[in-house]
Specification:
This protein is α+β, with helices and mostly antiparallel strands. It has two domains: 277 residues, Gyrase A, domain 2; 86 residues, Aminomethyltransferase beta-barrel domains (Elongation Factor Tu (Ef-tu), domain 3, Beta Barrel), CATH 2.40.30.110. It contains eight helices and 20 strands. A six-stranded mixed β-sheet has the order 11-12-13-10-4-14, with helices on both faces. The longest helix has 11 residues. It starts with a strand and ends in an 11-residue tail after the last strand.
């Protein structure tokens, strides 16, 4: 198993280490509920160095990225980030990712940790444009500082004006004594904050500086478990749950990153266009349970008569609201907000209603 440069710090801070995507990663420190609420209300720092970073360079870089991703990179300018996916040749998704436009001929693709090798092989196999591909995943660390106080904490360590980095934008700046740190504002937790990308050798220095700067704001380490409950509470997709090789981005509610525009002839575009024109047979929805129970990945979703109409993709008890929430795929007829569905839990049909994420309001934050 690989270890990130922060492994010793995680152990010293009481992190519960588990195997994840080939790494020893902290699943929690002080408890999932505590970390989740703390990030929503104050600030937490996540080690996400296991994520993949693949650079695409050269005169044909833009043409290649446009072909292999579903979104329209013609809309990108330097310093902007785009959420996208790699459509496969069967109507499914190889992976979802972030596309960073560094320059007109330089792009950074940030992919899921469990899919790095798969994504790399896919990109190499599709590279008829001859773009230069560089896998820097093993040489790159990433920390996500999330929460309402995250900006104030990071601002203490940099001269870069973080208020000048809008949502889904990025810049390069100095953090402490580390130069050329990529400072990104994409907020996978939905709690505000930034992601910092840097070379491994700067990792411990940056982590220690962040923890020191964050003392007055009660910055705490957070693990992968609370990161998952935070993203679910926002209704954000997770590869392997909401997305996979056989589910289309349209079915996942990602039509907004699947652009059928001129000049965007991405892989297998025709299939997805046809699917859109003919109508979807299933859709991803959010739901809340109306009685006690916790939905889990793979649980059947049924109608009132007990007929299976779908399956849960993600579920949990929201640490913030104490409501049982989840996402899942259902027959399109049951996909409208307010629709009544049932989650089969231990051979019992638990009533639920379809709702539109996020699963909390500003009032829940107190």
């Amino acid at each position: 198993m690989k270890k990130t440069v922060f492994y010793d710090s995680h152990v010293a801070m009481g992190g519960k280490m588990v195997p994840f995507a080939g790494f020893e990663m902290p699943v929690e420190f002080s408890g999932v509920r505590n970390e989740h609420i703390h990030v929503r209300k104050k600030a937490g720092v996540f080690d996400v160095s296991h994520m993949g970073e693949i650079w695409v360079k050269g005169p044909n870089a833009a043409a290649f990225v446009q072909k292999v991703t579903s979104n329209d990179i013609q809309q990108l300018t330097n310093g902007r980030v785009q959420y996208s996916c790699f459509p496969n040749d069967r109507g499914g998704v190889v992976d979802d990712l972030l596309v960073y436009r560094i320059a007109s001929d330089i792009y950074l693709l940030v992919v899921n940790a469990s899919n790095i090798e798969k994504d790399w092989d896919w990109l190499v196999s599709q590279n008829s444009e001859g773009a230069e591909l560089i896998n820097e995943s093993d040489n790159t660390s990433q920390l996500a500082i999330q929460g309402p106080y995250a900006t104030k904490i990071i601002q203490k360590l940099t001269d870069t004006d973080l208020t000048g980095v809008p949502y889904y934008h990025f810049t390069f700046g100095k953090i402490g004594s580390a130069d050329n740190v990529l400072i990104s504002n994409t907020r996978y937790t939905g709690a505000g904050g930034f992601e910092l990308y840097f070379k491994n050798e700067h990792g411990q220095e940056i982590f220690d500086a962040l923890m020191e700067a964050g003392k007055e704001y009660e910055l705490m380490p957070a693990g992968l478990a609370s990161r998952d409950t935070l993203r679910l509470e926002m209704g954000f997709c997770l590869y392997g749950n909401e997305l996979n090789d056989t589910t289309s981005p349209l079915e996942a509610g990602l039509g907004w990153i699947t652009k059928f525009v001129e000049g965007n002839n991405f892989i297998h575009r025709e299939y997805l266009e046809t699917q859109k024109e003919e109508g979807l047979k299933k859709k991803l929805v959010g739901f809340e349970l109306l009685e006690r129970g916790i939905p889990r990945h793979g649980y059947p979703i049924t109608d009132e008569a007990g007929q299976v109409i779908g399956e849960v993709s993600s579920g949990t008890l929201s640490p913030l609201t104490s409501k049982a929430i989840g996402m899942g795929y259902v027959n399109t007829a049951y996909s409208k907000p307010g629709a009544s569905i049932f989650i089969e839990i231990r051979n019992k049909q638990i009533p639920a209603k379809v709702v539109r994420p996020p699963f909390f309001t500003a009032g829940d934050l107190g």
